[in-house]
Amino acid sequence: MRVGVLTGGGDCPGLNAVIRAAVRKGVQEYGYDFIGFRDGWRGPLENDTVPLDIRAVRGILPRGGTILGSSRTNPLKSEGGIRRVKETLVKQEVDALIAIGGEDTLGVAARLSGDYGIRCVGVPKTIDNDLSATDYTFGFDTAVNIATEAIDRLHTTAESHMRVLVVEVMGRHAGWIALHSGLAGGANVILLPEQRFDVDQVCAWVESRFKIRYAPIVVIAEGAMPRDGDVVLKDDTLDSFGHVRLSGVGEWLAKEIEKRTGKEARTTVLGHVQRGGTPSAFDRWLATRFGLHAIDAVRDEDFGKMVALRGTDIVRVPLAEATARLKTVDPSLYAEAEVFFG
Asked: Which CATH code is given to the segment(s) 2-138+279-322?
């Protein structure tokens, strides 16, 4: 059997661990051949491939990013996209495809598997941790650790200058990174996409901290929205999956805080730092297990499935189910964090 592998969407710590595990087990135990597709779905769309064997995956476990490259290419929106993908798979004699990605990448895999008969197995990847079928996605733990370290460092600057520091983290529709890093980093306000925030209430929390001579830290997810406004955009261009570029709500909020309280406020946007560099031990462990179980699903010809973490077990769930809805922060979890606001 010949197995194709691709990584789509934003880069993420742990992608290389998945590739390494799938190839190592596939070659050593099952005698499979592998081929890598470059830059997500662009690879099979344009027949852009790289050799993928045990030598190619040596030493990549601790490396961030992906040796295969990534993109947000959507073959469903490309002219003749499905036909071109099928032609590439036939030309390269690919019997099965492992697609590693988030909601968009796996959404394409679900369509190709369910509607067009392409034999796909999915592996969940997103630092946002917003895929509902799995307890955790790899990359999330690394992102939270990076954000928490940044918040820890910003506390001393905020206190030295007695200013408000607004920390903007990733999270388009789900505030998992903001919630976990904010709680772990001792933030005084945490703002999520799941709950619109009242700017006046945020300012009240900020001023209450200054009364005890404590400089507040506000952690805000990039997709958070004010109660009387809309999402703040970097620009209005769309990618091939219809997503706008977020970022800017932190700067907007800092200006509002300054205007309403008279206190100096600065913004730190962590941006791509959160998903770059060496994966954490947990993400290496989870990504490796995902890769091992993904190649097992190929062996079992259990296609149209995604591997997922449930408790400590790796299970298989239908791709259609895995991408049907996003996993967002439950209000009860946010209520726990509110104890520390203000």
From this structure: 3.40.50.450
2-138+279-322 and 143-275 in the same fold: yes
Where are the chain's structural domains? 2-138+279-322, 143-275
Q: Which of 128, 130, 283, 296 is catalytic?
A: 128
Class level of CATH domain 143-275: alpha beta
Reply yes or no on whether 228 is catalytic: no
275-325 pLDDT tens trace: 888 999 999 999 999 999 999 999 999 999 999 999 999 999 999 888 888
Residue type (1 letter), 331: P
171, 173, 178, 183 alpha-carbon torsion, rounded to 10° = -160
Q: What's the distance, CA 222 to chain centroid?
A: 13
pLDDT of residue 248: 86
Query: Tens of pLDDT along 109-144?
Result: 999 998 999 999 999 999 999 998 999 999 999 999
Give the 3-state secondary structure of the chain.
CEEEEEECCCCCCCHHHHHHHHHHHHHHHHCCEEEEECCCCHHHHHCCEEEECHHHHCCCCCCCCCCCCCCCCCHHHCCCHHHHHHHHHHHCCCCEEEEEECHHHHHHHHHHHHHHCCCEEEEEECCCCCECCCCCCECHHHHHHHHHHHHHHHHHHHHHHCCEEEEEECCCCCCHHHHHHHHHCCCCEEECCCCCECHHHHHHHHHHHHCCCCCCEEEEECCCCECCCCCCEEEEEECCCCCEEECCHHHHHHHHHHHHHCCCEEEEECHHHHHCCCCCHHHHHHHHHHHHHHHHHHHCCCCCEEEEEECCEEEEEEHHHHCCCECCCCHHHHHHHHCCCC
